[in-house]
Structure formats: structure tokens, C-alpha cells
Amino acid sequence: MKASDLMVQCLEEEGIEYIFGVPGEENADFMMSLEASDQIRFILTRHEQGAAFMAEVYGRLTGNPAGCLGTLGPGATNLITGVADSNMDRAPMLVLTGQGASTRLHKESHQVMQVVDMFEPVTKWATTVWHPENIPEIIRKAVRLARTEKPGAVHIELPEDIAKLWAPKEPLKVKKFRRPVPDEKIINLAFERIKKAKCPVIIAGNGCIRRRASKQLRLLCEKTGIGVISTFMAKGCVDMREDYSLYTIGLGSKDIPACAVDAADLVITLGYDMVEYHPKLWNPGADKDVLHIDFLPAEIDENYDPSVEIVGDLAHALWMLNERIDAHGPLDFDLSSQQAVRRDMTAELEAHKDDTGEGPIRPQKALWDARQVLNDEDILLSDVGAHKMWIARHWIAHEPNTCLIPNGFCSMGFALPGALAASLVYPERKILAICGDGGFMMNVQEMETAARLGTKLTVMVWEDGGYGLIGWKQDNEFGRHTDLAFSNPDWLQLAQAFGWNGHLCTRAEDLQSTLREATEEDGPSLVVIPIDYRENVKLTKKLGEMACPI
């Protein structure tokens, strides 16, 4: 067989189900080989960035990589934003690019650039296939690296002349091994630390949304009552209806859940990535006693200096702690400060649930109504913008991986293509993407992809006619903002042009019924609402004046 055939067979052996992308001349042989596969489905997208976001969301939801594909030069550069987002948000992904013939890569040549060098900073590994017999090893290594904690993106470049060569090899068999687990002694030391604490609190990060880790975390909280504050990307690691959920941390200003950290004498961080929320924001004095439990050692930072560090499989580490809790019996803590945090934050989340006033719709009301429409297992995807801050603060998630927020690289344009991938993974669930009018238009072309595939998803656009988050931040720092306004299309005509269902909802009292109708329609649906971002200033003022109820 030729090299491109072997590459597809190796991907099949790894269980790859989807490759999203835009082909070009230099990966034509690979595309011909892929067309013959009865296992891997190729999804033709309208832009490579959309393809990368689709592969990212597939990886986040399944824990297995999908492929995103582009040709050399501009095809590769178009992929890079979504690839960087996936890598920084710990989603497994395979990045597949074509390249010119190896005979012309040493000199100035049409569309040729150092693609591997470009991808190295935003992937776990990037390489070129220089010999067809190396393909089985490269694919096996790439998939294993992409899946290994912490997951991320891996890039493989296949020059067009190498793709045509004879490849007398077979795919390597896939072997999966258990991750390393912590030592008994360090677990004992951590348990002694927890026993001696008077008011411990947990900060749960991205690593906690793995199903096994979420299960063990919930058991630990049920046994001890210790409160859990999640980062944006960890929402759903515990059911936020539970009394031990202290909601979410991560805003630039101090919010109510941060009061639980202030009152704690031990902060237990689980699967925590400081790329989401820097410790100087919750440990400014660098005086907190920190217990670090994660797949990898702690990042070196002056505000994050754990007294105990447990490195290994997170779910297994929590299971080991749960064993010791069962053997010891009930632990005695004073968690009254955490109860006050939950009480006050719950009141915040419910404050605007019954709004029916005229004019733009408050963010709090929009999210409350969306939560009533979606079931526990349904999926919300947030784009990046002012709405992301409201979703992070107000969305009540019940299950892991049901609220997807890009919060490491934070790229706009994520939610629409991401929702398409989510609908492929879970066609039986309701999929709702929330976008600002700025972020939505960045990958608007993928509306055609969604319509062509007949995917059932809903996108709610919060319209304010400008880059609201930038304006919010400039106002906070300078008391004013630069010109950030833009115009928008006729949304209903846009929906009709792309073959979508379209809804324009201008009254808060109609929003819940409109969303319910949209999520039950066949095919993709667009819901547009005018959003009341005067609430941004009110929230900033409230947080600036906040005093902890402790």
C-alpha cells in the first residue's frame, strides 16, 4: 500500500472517528485514502479554524482525539488558533497538514513555510513524516501523547511526495496502560493535613471533569461536607445543586466564592491549571496552606507553593483519600463560612429569574431561562466575550462536560463550530451555544456546515452591537472605552439564507418559550436577543464593594 493508505489504516487502528477540515492539493493522496475508510468520517468545513474548534470539542467530550486537517501554508495557519485553544484547554487533538514535496522544502518555494516549527509552541509534539515506514510509530506516538494527561494537540505533517511512496508496514497494535498512582505515604501525609484542618476548601480545576475524578470528588464531598469551588472549565465536576457546591471562581474581581478561600485554613487544589485563574488572585499574600493533587507537579509560582504535593492519577488519589476517610470515620470541620457563601451566591443566581421588564434582557434572566429548558445532561457551550463571564458566574451545571468554556487560550469563534461537534457526539441531547454578536460572526460560515449535516443545535446570540467585554474592561480601567461598535446583519434573513430556523426574541417574558421551541425544532436554530449589558457596570460596582460574610 502507499503511505497515505497506511496512515489512514493507522488512524483506524487508533479508533479515530472524525476528521474535520478543508483539503488542498498537497494532501490529495491522503484524502483519496480517507475516502475509502468505512470507519473515519470526514467533515468538510468552511474554514480550518472551525475544523480545529470542532476537533477540540470532540476531544473534550470524549477524551479521545479527532483530527483537524488543512493543507500547507494558509491552510495550516488557519488551523493554529483552534489548535492553540485545544492545547491550552487540555483537549486531545490530531492536527494533520499537507506539505510540498520534500524535494523543494530546502529552498524558497510556493506556499512553503516551516509549519512544524510554527506548531511546536502550541502542541505537545509536532513532526514531519520523512519516511513512509515510520508512519505506524508516528501515529501511535501522536495519539498516545494527545491522550496522555494532561491531554493536548499533536501535529503531523505529510509531504505530498512521501504520501505517494510504497509503505510495506502494518499499523501498530494499540495498548493502553493505567496511569501512575500516588505513593501511600504521601496520601497518608495529605490525609493527616486534612484531618487537622478546621475549615478546608477545594478548588476544582479542569482535571476534575474526567468522569472517574468527578465521581470520586463527589464521594469525598458527601463524606466530609468540604465545599468545592470550581474554575470555569471545571463546572459540573460536582452537581451545583448540592450544598457542598460553592459555585465558581475566576472573575478578575473578587466574588462571593472567594470568601470561602479567605476563610479556609487549607486549600485543596484538584486538577488545577493556573492558566485559568492565577493563584495571586486567591492567594495574594502567598500565605495559604495548599495541598496540590494533580496529574502533574505544581507549576512554580511565588503565590502557589504547596506544602504537600500529590502527583499521579487524580481519580485514584481521591479514591485513596476516600478509603482513609471511611476507615477513620467522620471528620470534624467548621464549615459555617462556606454555608454563608452558598446562601449569598444562591440568592445572587436567583435574583432575576422572574424578570419580565421591557427593553433589553438581563444576562442573569437569559441564563436562568436557558437552564430551565436544558436537562441535566444537555450541553451548553460558551463563546468568549462578556457573556462568558456571566455564564461562568451564573450557569448551574449538574454533570461534567455539560458546560464547555474556553478559558486557557480564550479564543472567540469557539462556540458555533464547537456546538456542531457536540451534536455529532451526542445527537440525542439538546446542544445550546451562547455567543456574542462579535464571536458568532467570526465563524458564521459554519452555519452552512451545520445545515448541510442536518445537525440539531441551537445558538443564542446576545446582541449588543460591539465588543462588550473589551468595553467593560476599558471602562473599569480608564473610565471610558474606545470605539468598539459595529453593525449586524438582519438575523432572521441570515438564518433563512443558511437554511436555519430563526427567532428574534425581544421580551424577557417570551424567552423561555422561545428557547424551548428552538431546541425542539428539526435542524439548527438561531435565537437572537438584545442583551442588557448595563448589568456589567452594576456587577463591577457590587464586587468592588463586596465584604465577605465571615
Automatic annotation (TrEMBL):
GO terms for molecular function: acetolactate synthase activity; flavin adenine dinucleotide binding; magnesium ion binding; thiamine pyrophosphate binding. Keywords: Thiamine pyrophosphate. GO terms for cellular component: acetolactate synthase complex. Residues 383-529 form the Thiamine pyrophosphate enzyme TPP-binding domain. Residues 1-113 form the Thiamine pyrophosphate enzyme N-terminal TPP-binding domain. It holds the Pfam family TPP_enzyme_N. InterPro entries: DHS-like_NAD/FAD-binding_dom, THDP-binding, Thiamin_PyroP_enz_cen_dom, Thiamin_PyroP_enz_TPP-bd_dom, TPP-bd_CS, TPP_enz, TPP_enzyme_TPP-bd. One of its GO terms (biological process) is L-valine biosynthetic process. It comes from the Bacteria. Residues 188-321 form the Thiamine pyrophosphate enzyme central domain. Belongs to the TPP enzyme family. NCBIfam families: PRK08322.1 (NF006187). This is Acetolactate synthase large subunit. It comes from Halioxenophilus aromaticivorans.
